[in-house]
Specification:
This is Aminotransferase class I/classII large domain-containing protein. The protein is built from 14 helices and 13 strands. It is an alpha/beta fold. Strand 3, helix 6 and strand 4 form a beta-alpha-beta unit. Helix 1 runs antiparallel to helix 6 and helix 12 runs parallel beside helix 14. The N and C termini lie far apart (48 Å). Bound molecules: pyridoxal-5'-phosphate.
Length: 422
């Protein structure tokens, strides 16, 4: 055991709790809270939040009235004041099955759908259902730190494989093969990607499936940004390859409908060969759902209307905005010498840029950079260390464009003030 310094006798049995605390301290939310506490209250300018992925605060990202009406109708109907079955109410499961089946070569059944309180609860449920002594899971670097925190709390060993910036952040599949052993239960991909803004081609996804098949593991595909793509590559759901290896897809309405506060997500089994059922994974998922809380019933009640009635023009407006703002962001990055972007984002709401500390005078690392940036410029950006890449930054472009312009101007003056003198 690392750090085992039991020289003084400890009568308490709370061993290892410290590790858990540190896992939950490096989540996006906790670090953004810390950066917010660095803000200078004497600065009268407004704070520019390019750190998190919740554009719902900006008027241009307001959700569609169709979704708002669906919630009101669900409440007024008085049909959804009851407890929900632990797997979710049938009409909502059926609606999600039909919605997701549009992109698949086979049809999902309502029984393949489990409704959760947002995508994060789907992650919690799945990692808890997969946990067993000695199990390990393969996670991407950079990634979404909630997986790390959840794995730590459920005591699943994590092994990290790299995403390759020079290959548009594709999975290093050689490394995946190298890391896996007979105790590996699953690998995680996030597509479209957070934090990289990558979108995977169907050829790459097929290779991921074939590698997983060879290793005898499940692919967990986080598709919370499904269809939020604005480059040349279309979104392809991993479930397309569910007959090669079992796939569990995680998603929600949080990002696509810009309503993260509504807390409605799903866990979906894409497993036409029934491998997950045969090996008890389904029973384990249902078992865990039986002892967890459910998404509010009236939100579930609104789901059929939300999924079936939202018009395409709502999504195309969101995607057009994201494309435009990603372009602005990508251009502005080129004007600031100390950051470089290896791969232009094609989906989600984020871009990763590398920080060149050699060009800066008094900046220790990415955390120090972001803390000083918050203090001096009232600009919040996420340090890369939070998503697994030290001395990188994750920038969100899903915000009001005037904020982006202003944010990059402040970033530029920050750079000039801290640049090494030649
Ligand atoms: C935002 C996000 C989630 C969480 O989604 P919710 O539906 O709000 O719980 C999960 N995974 C990734 C990659 C995300 O960016």
């Amino acid at each position: 055991m690392e750090n085992d310094t039991t020289t003084t006798k400890n009568i308490w049995n709370f061993k290892e709790t410290e590790k858990l605390v540190s896992a939950s301290n490096l989540t996006v939310r906790s670090v953004l809270d810390k950066l917010t506490s660095c803000l200078d209250t004497a600065d009268t300018r407004s704070v520019i939040p390019l750190g998190h992925g919740d554009p719902s605060v900006f008027p241009c990202f307001r959700t569609t009235p169709i979704a708002e009406d669906a919630i009101i109708d669900a409440v007024r109907s008085a049909k959804f004041n009851c407890y929900s079955p632990t797997v979710g109410i049938f009409p909502a499961r059926r609606a999600v099955a039909e919605y997701l089946s549009q992109d698949l070569p086979y049809k999902l059944s309502p029984d393949d759908i489990y409704l959760t309180s947002g995508c994060v609860q789907a992650i919690e449920v799945l990692l808890s259902a997969l946990a067993r002594p000695n199990a390990n899971i393969l996670l991407p670097t950079p990634g979404f730190p909630f997986y790390e925190a959840r794995a730590a709390f459920t005591q699943i060993e994590m092994r990290h494989f790299n995403l390759l910036p020079e290959k548009d952040w594709e999975v290093d599949l050689n490394e995946v093969e190298f890391l896996a052993d007979e105790n590996t239960v699953a690998m995680v991909i996030i597509n479209p990607g957070n934090p990289c803004g990558n979108v995977y081609t169907d050829q790459h996804l097929k290779k991921v499936a074939e590698t997983a098949r060879k290793l005898g593991i499940l692919v967990i595909s986080d598709e919370v940004y499904a269809h939020l793509t604005f480059g040349s590559k279309p979104f392809v759901p991993m479930g397309v390859f569910g007959s090669i290896t079992p796939v569990i897809t995680l998603g929600s309405i949080s990002k696509k409908w810009v309503v993260p506060g509504w807390r409605l997500g799903w866990l979906v089994t894409n497993d036409p060969n029934g491998i997950l059922k045969e090996h008890g994974v389904i029973d384990s998922i249902i078992g865990y759902l039986n002892i967890s809380s459910d998404p509010a019933t009236f939100i579930q009640g609104a789901i059929p209307q939300i999924l079936e009635k939202t018009k395409d023009d709502f999504f195309s407006k969101i995607v057009d905005m994201l494309r435009e703002y990603a372009d602005i962001c990508y251009d502005k990055i080129k004007d600031i010498p100390c950051i470089t972007c290896p791969s232009k984002p094609q989906g989600s709401m984020f871009v990763m840029v590398q920080l060149n500390l050699n060009l800066l005078e008094d900046i220790e690392d990415d955390l120090d950079f972001c803390a000083k940036l918050a203090k001096e410029e009232s600009l919040i950006i996420l340090p890369g260390v939070v998503v697994g890449l030290k001395n990188w930054l994750r920038i969100t472009f899903a915000c009001e464009p005037s904020y982006l312009e202003d944010g990059f101007q402040r970033l530029n003056s920050f750079y000039k003030r801290h640049a090494k003198k030649q």
